[in-house]
Structure formats: structure tokens, C-alpha cells
Amino acid sequence: MMLDTDLMDVLGPVRDVHVAAILESMASELSAGADVDAEPVDRDGDGRIRRRAPLSLPSRCDLRVSRDGRMMTLRALSSRWLCFEPIALPLSERAAARVAPFRWGAATVEARHALAKPDWTPVRLWYLEWFQARFGEESPDLLGVVHALEGPETAPDGWRFTVDLGSASVAGFVAMLHAFGSTGCSDIRVGEAAIAL
């Protein structure tokens, strides 16, 4: 599946709403005199990267803010919700995806109808690739990275994940769909409305 203009026209604004919320939070904290670190990796007190089970993945928060001798992490979730008609996308001869309205910072993904236990390696590799900083023109003040992937949890007919796509591009989202389509699951659904179909 190519990253065509129609897909970019639909998903670009979904990403833009989330990225704008991060940038607005950053601007607000900077104007209040705080030191702000954008999209830092979650580490323990000894500086080691924390990893989340069961896929042993690192994570990021939106912002780490230092002010008045205190440090805190912030998550910037916009209250705006963009509606669009659900999209059906072929991923391969065997797998297809349905994408319904979702929040870029908290996307629900269901992988369904596997003939055997899915191999989550493609999803793990996608995540680790898009976790790496990749500055670009889309968000010059951010890293262009995914922030977190939680799951899999057992769900009706398959497995459920929650993905914080952070400041990753629409190309990163499309790569995620292909990764899920390579797990042995034939039906990939993003967004609560797609899950209900």
C-alpha cells in the first residue's frame, strides 16, 4: 500500500491535532520559565531504560518539565476528536485493515482472525524502528517518534493493543498497519468504530 494523497489527507489532520497539543503544552511550559525536554525516553532512577512487558518495549512521554527544582512528565492529549468515514485498506493478499476515527496519542488496534498464534515480531521491530529519533520537516521541534505500545491483551476474535503514535508521521502509521498485517492476522482494525464493525 502506497502512502497516497487520500490517506494523507485523512490521517494528516488526525496527527496534526495531537502534535499541536504537544507543541502547545511545550510553549506554555517554556513561557512559564520551565526547562522542557521533548519526547524523552522513560528511564529508572539509575538512568536505565524501562521496558514494558510483554514485548519488552521502551516508551517515551510527551514532555519532561523541570521547574522550581521539581521534575514531572506531561502527556498532552487534545480534547478534539476528528471524524472521518472509515477506510478499508488492503495490506496483502491475506490481510486487510479498517481504520475508523481514533486519537493519535491513544489508538486502539485489534489484530483478528489468526490461523495460529500470531508472531508479534514484525510489530516489535516496527515499534523499535519508529522509536528512534527522526527529525523532519513535519515537526521540526519534535523527534518524529512513536511513544508507547501496550499489549497484546486478549480480545474477542483476537488481540488488542493501545498505541501512542507520538510525533511519528503518517508513514509510520502505515508501516504499523503493514507490521500488524505480517503477524498472521488477516483483519487489522484501528479505532473503536472499526472494532465494532
Sum this structure up briefly.
With 197 residues, the protein is α+β, with helices and mostly antiparallel strands.
Care to count the β-strands? 9
The low-confidence parts are: none
Q: Largest beta sheet: what is the strand line-up?
A: 4-5-9-6-8-7
Separation of termini? 22 Å
Give the tally of structural domains: 1
What would you note in describing this structure?
- The chain is globular.
- The protein has 4 helices and 9 strands, in the order αββββββαββαβα.
- 28% of the residues lie in helices and 26% in strands.
- It has 197 residues and is of the alpha+beta class.
- The relative contact order is 0.21.
- The protein has helices at 5-31, 121-131, 170-181, 192-196, and strands spanning 35-38, 63-67, 70-74, 87-90, 96-99, 107-114, 148-155, 158-164, 185-190.
- A hairpin with a 2-residue loop joins β7 and β8 (158-164).
- The protein has one domain (1-197).
- The protein has a 6-stranded mixed β-sheet with strand order 4-5-9-6-8-7. Strands 1-2-3 form a 3-stranded antiparallel β-sheet, covered by helices on one side.
